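All the exercises in this workshop are built on plain-text protein records. Sequence and backbone structure share a record, each on its own labelled line. The structure tokens are whole numbers drawn from a learned vocabulary of backbone shapes. The record below serves as our worked example for the rest of this section.
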Amino acid sequence: MGKRIKKLKKIRIHREGTNTLLYGAIALVSIAIVLWFMFDTKIPFWAFLVVFGTVYGITTNFYRCPIRYFGTDDTEDIVVAPADGRIVVIEEVEEHEYFHDKRLMISIFMSLWNVHANWFPVDGKVKFVKHKNGNYHKAWLPKASEENEHADVMITTPDGEDILCRQIAGAVARRIVTYAKEGEDCYIDEHLGFIKLGSRVDVYLPLGTEVCVKMGQSTTGDQTVIAKLKKSV
């Protein structure tokens, strides 16, 4: 594994939002101009600025994309939060699709106000990427993990441990974008993908993994350590 390159922290607009924000700005300005000339009683121009500026500001906030770095190259056995949000599940579950045994699942729910970029939770190599269509239950419900539309990224760590990261669509979120490619090396600090609007990310870990978070805790993607894998013998 190569050493990650550290850069200055900054915030930018995620590439998934570039066209949306550009066309949205054009649409909002056009609507404001039309409404301005339609009303006989002129509404103060500042009112348009407040209303449409607020809408645009919320949209821009949704697509913000902070460039983050974990802060140290010592990421062996470390599992970081793949998303901003809060912990909604910490439990042992039967995983029948890939592992066919029990796994520790840690789930993070992202609200409309969270950053929606997703990061790789561990260093390793992408074993495979699979997308599955499904329902659109509320993302925090237990059945959402298996029944909702989702994208699965399996990562093999340098110690040979397989870690599954699952991006899940919610009742509103209808588009999952996954950048991970099969066979590529991946690192903490790199973007795994993006989910538009409220949604959820699950991480499946081997039993015996040390949990470093608690239910309801807020997480910061690529910063919060959610677990530590057992050291290889």
